[in-house]
Amino acid sequence: MVSGLKRDLGLFSVGAISIGAMVGSGIFILPALAYRIAGPTMVLAFLLAGVLVLPAALSKIEMATAMPQDGGTYLYIERGMGPLFGTIAGLGTWFSLSFKGALALVGGVPYLLYVLGGDLPVSIEAIAIGIALVLIALNLVGSDVTGRFQVGIVVVMLAAMTIFVVAGIPAVESSRLSGSFDPRAAGSLSLLEATGAVYVSYAGVTKIASVAEEIENPSRNIPLGMLGSLFFTGGLYVLIVWVLVGVLPVNEAGGLANIGIPGAEDAIVAEAGRLLLGTPGVAIVTLAAMLALISTANAGVLSASRYPFAMARDDLAPSSLTEISDRFNTPTRAVMLTGAVILVMIAVFPILQIAKLASAFKILVFVLINVALISFREGAVEGYDPDWIAPLYPWIQIFGIVAGFVLLSQMGTIPIVGAVIIIAGSLAWYYGYVRKRIDREGAARDTVRRNIGDAAVERTRELFESDTEYDVLVGVTERTSERAKRDMLRVATDLGRLRSTVVSVVEFLDIPHRVFAEDHVEVHDTDPPEWLGTDADDRPDWVPHGSVNPPTLTSGGVEVTGDSIGGNGDSGGSGPGDPTETDAAADTRIEYREVDSEDHKRAMVDVATLEGYDLLMVERDRADFHRRLFGGETDWLLDNAPCDVVLVEDRGLDGLDEISVVANRGAYDPVKLLLADAIAEEADATINLLQAIPEDAPDTQRETMEAYHTDLISICTVPTRSTVIETDNRIEGLTRFVGDADLLVTGVDRTGMTGRLLGRPGNELVESVDCTALMVQTHDGRESRSRVKRFLTDYLFA
């Protein structure tokens, strides 16, 4: 992408920006806080924090060399995880960097108070605002000027800190360092809390990726600059805090040193300089502190301003923020907006508290960075060709993700609440401004969608290839029409074309309540009814040939008898779980019984449970689907059945030529395809796989859906085609494409209170077509799919 930005930041500028972004609050503000949490073990906390930042740094280096463009964290998360997460990362990181920049400008206050004995000639805010205006001007002039300014600051700052360390090492008292590298000395929880508190000290290491578009030879300078600055700064941190612990006495409050100047309690590095070198030591440390904090603020303005600039180029922010200065080749409006935000923060907000809240977001962003790299690697994203490859993939990224969440859990409630507030604001911006302007998605979403599709294909293949018996209970009542009974039986027997099947037709008869009833249900011996076609002359073509034999089924240890049609004419019977060995083309047994009960829906569930049926087939009760608040018989069956359930809306099954199978937002349930394939094979029909996606769906979604359908087509045993439609009115679009189909196989996509309150799209589809419909609910799907997983599947597929 040609942006007009100049690549004029060399290796030294890159290292200086990265070091300057880190060496600030991490050395001059946070050690006092970390000591109060973990004591001398804070030395180990600084070392551990650097190790935990390394996975995100490695991930970011790889992505920066693949996409050397301004935007850094936002760019990689947006490309890897999509615009939604990109918006959260972009806005959140922008505010976080702005907060930290403002904090750095007022963070030198304890040192100024220390030098002046508690008195300042002007307000703290006025000094901070003045410095901020200078830094904003520098960033407007150009990144090359900013880079040279940063190099100068870092050189002077590091020289001062080198003098401090060299003078401090001989003065260190080893007794004060007891437990400084022993995690047991402070306790694991205190160590983790301290590590989380100082974690942000290293956050600046990745800031250089925010200006990757302005770095010359990025494939060389980004890895060297980021890794070199991280190892250098980590070593410097450990040395300095080691000296602080070794030379400063512990005060009565359990903190380092004993500074009696109000407001200067955290200026412990200045106190250490006084103890080591007297007044010159105070001057050296104060100079280093002010330069370090100014350096942090300058790096903050430089890197933070590139986030709205990069977001605007991707239509996630107003396009005016992409304006480039003709004279200085800098994103002037983005810099001015960021500068204005920092000025407002200095003047209005309690910067220290807000910056602590925002620090938790930095950990979350680094977690997302590791996830984004995995998305790029696993998603096989076109054009992703990094010049530098992160080592130990994916273990180091997984380590970074887990470690990040562990640290977040130890930071307390307030930082987490702060991160949640930032996320909520980013979500509001996305849904209020961004969503209607974009039509793309991230690599992660398509990767997860493909993985879900692959898993669904594998489940479907296993179901088709399985040779275990799949037994069906056809439950009919006095209200079921004769045509519906025959059509339900026909669908059930068709499964025998693919699987060994016992089909039990059970007529459930309601009887009045009896006080002294001995059993929950009564099973009666009775001759098969005429509609079942027991006479060979009247039997439909689809009924398996054979003689009538009395089967023996076990129901809770009680022998029940009835009549049977089917098999290959062998005498004797077999129940579900004892398949009859017959010819595969007609390996279906039909059994008939009558059951008296006071509540037929409970009797259906009892019979299905006690006899171990795999599928319960019942007629769809239209009225039940409109009893929204309290539900009805159908809802109860769907919630309590111990097996798969098929609801049959019977409108006739004569002349089957085409069967439409509709995915209910997510992947296809394998049972849908098994039913459709078995029926189509017997009727010599074709299958049409129908799936609806939004009109503005990205190309990757359509391509993934088509590939998913291709895999399913290879499993089916009958001619099958795929239809992926783009529509924002899903029911209307599917109804139109179902068209002249003779049978619709869809799903029960909402049950329980959710379905009663929000309606059932699958039910709406069934009522909008003219053909017979089968609504399938799988037991495994109902039991294993949590609400979160169901939401994610719906979101990814539709």
TrEMBL record:
Keywords: Cell membrane, Membrane, Transmembrane, Transmembrane helix. Its main location: membrane. InterPro entries: AA/rel_permease1, APC_superfamily. It comes from the Archaea. The keyword Membrane applies. The keyword Cytoplasm does not apply. Residues 564-576 have a biased composition (Gly residues). GO terms for cellular component: plasma membrane. It is found in: Cell membrane. Residues 548-584 are annotated as: Disordered. The chain crosses the membrane at residues 9-31, 37-58, 84-114, 120-141, 153-172, 192-212, 224-245, 282-304, 334-352, 358-376, 388-408, 414-433. It holds the Pfam family AA_permease_2. It is a multi-pass membrane protein. This is APC family permease.
